[in-house]
Write a structure and sequence with these properties.
Blueprint (H helix, E strand, L loop, with lengths): L1 H11 L11 H79 L11
Helix pairs in contact: 1-2
Length: 113
């Protein structure tokens, strides 16, 4: 967006001195050239402001997204740790059940699970 505004500002910069200095066309041309020059300056300022706004917004979002990513990473690590602990508990219960079945004991109590 800022690039397009810069391009438009560059397009407004004209210098056409083909008319003689005393002709009525030149007076109109000078006024038009002056207006286009002013428009070019305004558009350049708008483009710079757009660029600054985008950079500021990107910096703000980057901090927020970084904080969110950090929070999500901690939560994921917590869930992985819990899943590993639960898996170990299930394996131990399964080993006890299998050992109990071999010994003739086929039930595992709820406390063991």
């Amino acid at each position: 967006m800022a690039e397009a505004t810069h391009d438009l500002a560059a397009t407004c910069r004209v210098s056409d001195d083909s008319s003689p200095p005393d002709s009525p066309d030149n007076a109109f041309g000078c006024e038009l050239t002056s207006i286009l020059h002013l428009l070019s300056s305004v558009l350049t300022e708008v483009a710079d402001s757009q660029l600054s706004l985008c950079e500021s917004l990107a910096a703000s979002l980057a901090k927020s997204l970084e904080a969110l990513a950090h929070t999500e990473k901690r939560e994921a690590e917590r869930l992985v740790t819990k899943a590993e602990a639960d898996t170990q508990q299930v394996r131990k219960s399964e080993e006890r059940r299998t050992a109990g079945a071999k010994d003739g004991r086929s039930e595992v109590t709820a406390k063991e699970l």
